[in-house]
Design brief:
Strand content: 5-15%
Structural class: mainly alpha
Number of domains: 2
Radius of gyration: 20 Å
Helix content: over 70%
Distance between the termini: 30 Å
Strand order of the largest sheet: 1-2-3
Largest sheet: 3 strands, antiparallel
Order of helices and strands: HHEEEHHH
Number of helices: 5
Length: 179
């Protein structure tokens, strides 16, 4: 009977730890969004820099930062503004990976997974946002650019969420039947 109680207590501690990691991810995500929404031009310049460089390199154009606006592409007449960062998607991706998968790790591996989830969400989020931007630039002249750009973003972000989920699920030994 005593080993069964020890196992039950260990499982309860593990569940509490998983819930705390999820709550920490949600709190960190909320803090990131609040910080991003109140970021000054210096921070926005740095945060949008990868997007501007990748887009500029792809189209072989120069994007210059304009305070209060974002990176401006004079040759193509578009702006990479704060909404182009994909900050909400990055937070969503980070929270999804932590909340769904941290339970598969024990001890210090939880901490490492938490940190890698944040770093990975930022990297994957920037790449997904850049794909969205690069794919949208040719559509600037269409009369329905805003709707097309939003729809493209939904498709790219949803596909990325599903793809990352499937990849991590497979990498951590999970199967869809066990979920």
């Amino acid at each position: 009977m005593l080993p069964a109680l020890h196992a039950l207590a260990r499982a309860a501690r593990q569940n509490v730890a998983d819930i705390l990691y999820g709550a920490l991810a949600l709190a960190l995500g909320a803090a990131m969004l609040i910080g991003y929404d109140s970021a000054d031009d210096g921070a926005l310049r740095a945060l949008l820099w990868p997007h501007a460089n990748i887009t500029g390199a792809f189209y072989r154009i120069t994007l210059l930062y304009q305070d209060g606006v974002g990176y401006v592409a004079l040759e193509r007449a578009f702006v990479l503004g704060p909404a182009c960062m994909g900050a909400r998607f990055i937070v969503m991706l980070f929270c999804m990976t932590v909340c769904f998968f941290v339970r598969r790790f024990r001890g210090y591996h939880k901490i490492a997974f938490f940190a890698l989830s944040l770093i990975g969400a930022i990297a994957v989020g920037i790449l997904a946002s850049c794909v969205r931007i690069i794919g949208s630039v040719p559509l600037l002249s269409t009369g329905q650019f805003t709707a097309i750009h939003a729809g493209t973003g939904i498709v790219i972000y949803l596909a990325t969420l599903v793809g990352v989920y499937a990849l991590i699920n497979r990498a951590t030994g999970g199967s869809y039947e066990k979920q």
